[in-house]
Amino acid sequence: MHATFTRDQQDIAATVRAMVGDEKTGARAALDEGWSAPSCDAALLEGFSGLGVAESAGGPGSSLVDLLVAVEALGASLVPSRFAAHAAAIQLLAGSGEVPEAALEGQQVLTGAVVVPGAAGWAPTAGGTTTRTLVAHAESADAFVVAGTDGVRLLDRASVEVRQRESFDPAVPLADVTPTADGELAGAGEAGLQRATLVAAAELSGVAQGAIDLAAEYARNRHQFGRPIGSFQAVAFQLAEAVAVRKAAWDLSLYAAWAVDNARPDAAIQVHAAKAAAGKAAVFAAERCIQVHGGMGITREADPHLFLRRALVLDASYGTGAWHRRRTGALRVADRRASA
Amino acid sequence: MHATFTRDQQDIAATVRAMVGDEKTGARAALDEGWSAPSCDAALLEGFSGLGVAESAGGPGSSLVDLLVAVEALGASLVPSRFAAHAAAIQLLAGSGEVPEAALEGQQVLTGAVVVPGAAGWAPTAGGTTTRTLVAHAESADAFVVAGTDGVRLLDRASVEVRQRESFDPAVPLADVTPTADGELAGAGEAGLQRATLVAAAELSGVAQGAIDLAAEYARNRHQFGRPIGSFQAVAFQLAEAVAVRKAAWDLSLYAAWAVDNARPDAAIQVHAAKAAAGKAAVFAAERCIQVHGGMGITREADPHLFLRRALVLDASYGTGAWHRRRTGALRVADRRASA
Amino acid sequence: MDFDDSTEDRAFREEVGAWLDRALADVPDQEELSQDEREAWSRTWQDRLCEAGWAGLSWPVEHGGRGMDALAQAIFNEEAAKRGAPYPLNGVGMMLAGPTIIAHGTAEQQARYLPGILSGETYWCQGFSEPGSGSDLASLRTSAVKVDGGWLVNGSKIWTSNAHNASMCLLLARTDPDPANKHGGISYLLAPMDRFTVKPLVMINEDTEFNEMFLDDVFVPDSDVLGGVGNGWKVALTTLAFERGSMALNLWVWARQAVDRLVDLALERGRCDDEAFWDSVGALQCDAEAVRIGSMRMVAESQAGGIPGPETSALKSLWAGVVQNANRMAVQLDEAGGVLLDGDGAAARMRRYLRARAHTIEGGTEEVQKSILAERVLGLPRSR
Amino acid sequence: MDFDDSTEDRAFREEVGAWLDRALADVPDQEELSQDEREAWSRTWQDRLCEAGWAGLSWPVEHGGRGMDALAQAIFNEEAAKRGAPYPLNGVGMMLAGPTIIAHGTAEQQARYLPGILSGETYWCQGFSEPGSGSDLASLRTSAVKVDGGWLVNGSKIWTSNAHNASMCLLLARTDPDPANKHGGISYLLAPMDRFTVKPLVMINEDTEFNEMFLDDVFVPDSDVLGGVGNGWKVALTTLAFERGSMALNLWVWARQAVDRLVDLALERGRCDDEAFWDSVGALQCDAEAVRIGSMRMVAESQAGGIPGPETSALKSLWAGVVQNANRMAVQLDEAGGVLLDGDGAAARMRRYLRARAHTIEGGTEEVQKSILAERVLGLPRSR
């Protein structure tokens, strides 16, 4: 067992962090001016789109953990790059082994479409002309990966109708996407959905970390009653709890990625657990970040609400956290029933 | 509006407190030797059995709030008196207006039987020969009030079979009671169930208060790191939360008693809310009391677990807290649906 | 223990109800309005209250009020809230400035300032918090320097509701820069706002309820020091007590409305017939009712001559929890977890969820409420 | 990042499994036994471990161990737990005393004490906490006074597991009553227990896992001071680090078992097919698995030469929450809220619920774990 990050993985995280810098300015600018590509967008797409793609799917033979490490670093910075949405869409395809080379090189930008309006979880089928909602960065995507538990379809812009929606996090524009015709499915949908969902879980783990870091910095520096507020247990322990919850989310995500890559029998439940825990961690950390900031926390000019926006959008995407949690419980019960 | 305690009510509380003294010794002794009547038992039964009984039911015309005030004071002391069980049984009958004089004088000791094994809430009928469970002090009771939402029956010992059970709180012995024959019902069961349930809610409010007082005293006196542990927010705020939760429970109980006495249209939902809140408050306060006591809290020789025992027994009695909470929500939804 | 109206209370409730029905006839549903429209209606509503003589409902008769008690105010607020009345735009004047000036002002100050509040001419705001002094109010730094005939005040204030409509400010400033104890050296000034610079603070839900204020050589004459130089902390505590009292009269209504909205949404979506939902709503209902009943008991205690005790902090804490949880649940019930703001009613729900995050911060943070309970109800030693 | 066994790990796991299957063949289900019976089986199990050479699994070869790493110990514990093996009765000796003496002992101390642990002859207990020194361990008062050739120790200790079976104690005592700083003046003694008075502490679930110990003129020779006079705090930190490490190897198993028992009960009662139950179990499952995975990562870090970081406190905290919540839910699922102890399995469930209340207290309270996370992970200033 080597349940530690490889040197490569450490390098990936460091490189991504260096590329995105402190990009919270991008997330904030989107609030006023709508989304625009951050300066690192193209480089991320070009440099990292092969992460998590096996050789059999035309990739460099990188593990899903490699990809998660990159996405987590992005999440912490709130950088409004299309990379995570694109990478998740690639993972939807990677389950079936057919990822276009242009997408792997970051030239063709993809996004995933997996949730049917009114449903909390993954779509049962990738076929038909049913609308998908919560599709990120649809406006600027070159192609769409429509996925369901029975397979995936890769559709170009001409094959779908895109209806822009108003996103709670304008740095992640959301749209409804409707295939204009039915079509043939490829691959095993469930594996792709699992892989893509973990990309969202990793980003949420990063968002949680970013919110914790911001709150801790404030708590170290803001003084009241002659002391840094972080020396009050009521403040400090909120963040300590966020640390524990966030560690749970990230550890679950890493393990699930390994389980999926290695086709472990518990892969399905681990994916659900990871997404549920990551959504909870990010929302909790963002709410605590607001609380610890006191009055400043509820102003638009301070950053904490940016984390809350991203957290809620991602918690809703690729199946809501509540849905994944219930699925985790249902699978646990089923497993125990089978072994009884 | 005079939503303050009357002078009479203040006197009742003070008198009860003086009578029971610090009777936690009784609750503790029951752990080792089983239940025996505390010294104040007879005086409580004789002096206060008329509380909460209207003139029409042969009582002194006292309000239900009067009774709750007495029972709350008992609850805080954990005194193992039969008074609360007896008073609740009288309230089951008071709904129908027929309370035997001997019971009102505390000579005939009653206990209530309202929960059918396997069910979480009130029994649907008082008729038949179905067993009742969680009957307190059955062994020493002179008669049994079997109640359901359709009415009540007063049965003497010869008309029931009593099977002693092992109570988690030996200071409140519990039994299963089975009527040996069917019989005629009296009165309106629901009103009696509401009144009796509030007696349990009041005792739970008292248990919560007693646990908070004990914990606060410990937190003021126990020192670690050169300071009383109560000066650490992590300790202090657990108890502050318990104060808020306990105040909610007690305020709800008082209001529900007034609403029931005055046949207000919201009486039913208020009773459910009070019992749900009181169970939650007592269990929460007792668990916090254990935690604040640290290592001592998990020893049999310290008192905190005595509060937990009483809290869990009463939370289960007269409908579990969880059942009352769900009923509260269901009635709220029904009310809103009707007004839509 | 009686929660019913007395005969007189009932008569008063009917009088109030009849007036409200007339006065609200042309007032639209406030929930549907933009912030600007809401504010305009708040001003109109304030005028109508003043005209009808409700502004000084609980002020003593000798100061132009109706001399009624906290219960009457509670009845008025309850009936107004039931009918969805606008929030009166000079709440600070009626509920804080007036009563504080009545309690601590000289006859001259009372004569100068009370009539303007009753007539609706003068709006007030509360200049207590500062960027560096939030929970730790006594650490405030706004300085008042003695000059001929008065004080020259410089500094900044924050979280000021309604500053952009007010012409007068209840202003805490430090008249002694180096006092023996940190509560000393603070004075309470009745300050004209013509030399204040007011900058709106945009909240995370895009509303601008609060402001920042910058004071640049604001002159306050000696005659406008309230309660004496150096006694500001004591006077401020009076204002804060009135603030807590007046909050408690309104809080429970907001809690009930939050639960109403959640249940209505669930009904609309057909999501309210399972036990898990009943369980959640039951928990919210318990706490929302506890806030209502606790408020009634608090009013009854003030009426009986007592001062609302520290238990009021329990109500604030329960209230914040109910509204935050109900509003979060409503967002989660929404399609797509509430993040598609163009969905039916989604934007308003998300705004309310965001607004509620402030409930554990404004009016004394959750941490401050718990400290009050710990220290003043339980007698635990100070943690700060 | 790889969570799989290497080829060697897999071979070791098979070796361990084969041995365990044989050694456990006659061992009954521990859950069904009385405390006395469990203790007897713990002793038998300790003997079998010693005989087979597993006692020194992760000790260096030169000290008689097998020289394997933390991962091997984790594999051993996991396989043993899967099969419901008893808890070895000299865990303190194998996991704390041995490694601490190896780290800080003189060659003579090592030669004197290590063989007895490996052979199963000498049982150890840990005399750290005192009635007045719980979370604040450094305030301990047990005094060691210098006499000819050694130290005379007086005082009392509490929360000592297994004291009634042990003959040696890892004893912290104050050798300097007036040190310059409160961590100074403490020494770490290897104390014989023949002059200890041991009194069992009855827990709220009636078990007697812990003891109080009273020391009356206990003589400890100079040669049994570990790590030097006045260096006891540093040596104690080593023991505590080993304690955290060895806990983490076991915690996740207990968390999983608690969830298993809850689900089994719900299955038995037909109460597990609704979404509310799935929701609750899902939440428990997330945290239980997080403890397991976190433990694997912790072991991997120790194996890679690092020292388990303060994040271990997150595992402890999550673990306590899972077990407390799962055990509370199980009691609530029981007929009559679990309070009728003669119900089928009810007494055992209530005992486990009560036992779990201690999980946020023992091994560093929940408050201590959060302090560690706040100060050492987040770099927040000390709150105490």
Task: Describe the SSE topology.
The complex is a heterotetramer, with two copies of chain A (340 residues) and two copies of chain C (384 residues).
Chain A: H1 7-20, H2 24-33, H3 41-48, H4 64-77, H5 83-94, H6 101-104, E1 110-113, E2 132-136, E3 143-148, E4 151-156, E5 160-164, E6 174-179, H7 189-221, E7 223-224, E8 227-228, H8 233-261, H9 267-292, H10 304-316, H11 321-339
Parallel strand pairs in A: 1-3
Antiparallel strand pairs in A: 2-6, 3-4, 5-6, 7-8
Helix pairs in contact in A: 1-4, 4-7, 5-7, 7-8, 7-9, 7-10, 8-9, 9-10, 9-11
Chain C: H1 7-23, H2 35-51, H3 70-82, H4 91-104, H5 107-119, E1 124-127, E2 143-147, E3 150-161, E4 168-174, E5 186-192, E6 196-201, E7 210-221, E8 225-226, H6 232-269, H7 275-303, H8 312-333, H9 346-357, H10 366-377
Parallel strand pairs in C: 1-4
Antiparallel strand pairs in C: 2-3, 3-7, 4-5, 5-8, 6-7
